[in-house]
Design a protein that fits this description.
Elements: E1 3-8, H1 30-44, E2 52-59, H2 67-80, E3 83-93, H3 100-109, E4 113-119, H4 123-129, H5 135-147, E5 153-159, H6 166-177, E6 183-188, H7 196-202, H8 211-227, E7 231-234, E8 237-239, H9 246-252, E9 257-260, E10 265-267, E11 271-275, H10 279-288, E12 293-297, H11 300-312, E13 318-319, H12 329-340, E14 344-347, E15 350-353, H13 355-358, H14 361-368
Length: 372
């Protein structure tokens, strides 16, 4: 397995836009869930596997974890897995958790890459998002992390926000690139069905951003990133040369990984596996070593479709030689049309989206999908 993902389903507050699996009322079962997570690490381990190249703590809010919880998790990982000496170990952190004490703990256990959720440079937007920090907290946290020796820092931003002008987005991009961080993940706001944001929009308390403006903000993102020396290596991810997220790149390159924790997903090269999205059921299931997950073997078409979807999102493009079957006459005609529209290029057996094509990435992939 190339990567190990750990889902920490704890949050202090419920962000209005978030549909990930998490809980804000976790203290009464916190220790039992951490114990289950550690037990799953043991159950899923095997020393015969290739070494773990990346470890990623996501959530939820991993930065809520205490020193003793982190030490227990890392001790278990190192006892039961072969971790590469130069493994990338990423840790999602909220600005309000970034203190000298916490940074010292994170560095001591081996964390060498931080992913910090700034989300926006507007305090007003942070307020309706129900975030627990201010813009100043994020800026101070990044500076503090840099002072304590973290030299691989990623920042999350969201664009396409209600009321966010192109000028405001441009200012946010200027601000983040001047922070001296190495990586940026920038996502267009999506309104998921079971979120507080969806409720606010339905009640007309927030007006969704115009799709044309969202497209303009995306293209501005590409321009700004390039001007600051950042490479767009995936639709939503940008980095300085050589500092791509190795862990997330393993997803897009279709490499195997293990997912630990409630709602976490795994992939072994042919089969998907996902854990239950319920903390109580997960904890009890792992404790009794009874099934707390489901599995699905990918059909030939599903495997092919995922290759297309993931490959087209990246700077490396879709490797046509990796597809088990060539495109049909009809599919090739569709590809020729996309090329005519300047949405993609074909060279050296690679299909790569243009900047314009990236605006239509999902639609292009869907047009090439095959159904079982």
């Amino acid at each position: 397995m190339s990567g190990l993902y750990l889902h920490i389903p704890f949050c202090r507050k419920r962000c209005t836009y978030c549909d990930f699996h998490f809980s804000t009322t976790f203290e009464n079962y916190r220790s039992s869930l951490i114990s289950a997570l550690v037990q799953e690490l043991v159950l899923r381990s095997t020393k015969s596997n290739n070494s773990i190249q990346t470890i990623y703590f996501g959530g939820g809010t991993p930065s809520i974890l205490t020193e003793s919880e982190l030490c227990l998790i890392f001790t278990t990982i190192r006892q039961h897995y072969i971790v590469a000496p130069d493994a990338e170990i990423s840790f999602e952190a909220n600005p309000e958790d970034i203190t000298v004490e916490n940074l010292t703990i994170w560095k001591s256990v081996g964390i060498n890459r931080l992913s910090i959720g700034l989300q926006t440079f507007s305090d007003a937007d942070l307020q309706w998002m129900n975030r627990a920090h201010l813009v100043s907290d994020g800026l101070d946290g990044i500076k503090l992390a840099q002072q304590l020796g973290f030299d691989n820092i990623s920042v999350d931003l969201i664009y396409g926000l209600p009321g966010q002008s192109l000028a405001a987005w441009q200012a946010s991009l200027d601000a983040v690139f001047k922070l001296g961080v190495q990586h940026l993940s920038a996502y267009c706001l999506t309104i998921e069905p079971k979120t507080a944001l969806n409720h606010l929009v339905r009640k007309k308390k927030l007006q969704p951003a115009d799709e044309v403006l969202q497209s303009e903000q995306f293209l501005e993102l590409l321009t700004k990133a390039k001007s600051f020396g950042f490479e767009q290596y995936e639709i939503s991810n940008f980095s300085l040369p050589g500092l791509h997220s190795k862990h997330n790149s393993s997803y897009w390159k279709f490499l195997p990984y293990i997912g630990i924790g409630p709602s976490a997903h795994s992939f072994d090269g042919t089969q998907r596996r996902w854990n239950v999205r319920n903390n109580t059921i997960y904890t009890k299931g792992v404790g009794k070593n009874e099934q707390w997950y489901q599995t699905e073997a990918l059909s030939a078409n599903e495997y092919r479709n995922e290759q297309i979807l993931l490959g087209l999102r990246t700077v490396w493009g879709l490797d046509l030689t990796a597809l088990k079957e060539a495109f049909t006459i009809k599919e090739n005609a569709q590809i020729v049309e996309f090329a005519r529209l300047n949405w993609l290029t074909l060279a050296d057996q690679k299909m790569i989206l243009t900047e314009e094509g990236k605006l239509h990435a999902d639609g292009i992939a869907a047009a090439l999908f095959r159904l079982d």
